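B., you asked whether I could sanity-check this one before it goes into the benchmark set. Here's the sequence:
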Amino acid sequence: MGEVVNLSGVKVMVIDDSNTIRRSAEIFLVQAGCQVVLAEDGFDALAKIADHHPQVIFCDIMMPRLDGYQTCALIKKNAKLRATPVIMLSSKDGLFDRARGRMVGSDEYLTKPFTKDSLLQAVATHARNNA
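And here's what the prediction gave me:
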């Protein structure tokens, strides 16, 4: 068991087309005190980001309509959102995916299935940098 990270009040958005992934991320994050905003795809996320101003965004790569790379690129192109850390989620742990994630401006890369510890660690790291 990792140490309990207190992320009370940190707003986190999870963008994933898998209900299972969204739910498990939400459970981990809520237990740590985060406020969680869920989005099913890039369009859904972009509509919600403006309203919710998340401090950290997790973004799945493989999504219909607008994939994670496109979503991340759009977030980073927006002057108001550029500083928001985006963490890519992928079931593939490939160098190519990591490199492509960096090219669109992502701040970190987590492989699915993620553990509670890796998820919270990523939030803790980036929420601090974005404080």
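One thing to flag: Residues 11-129 form a domain with the Rossmann fold fold (CATH 3.40.50.2300). Otherwise nothing jumped out at me.
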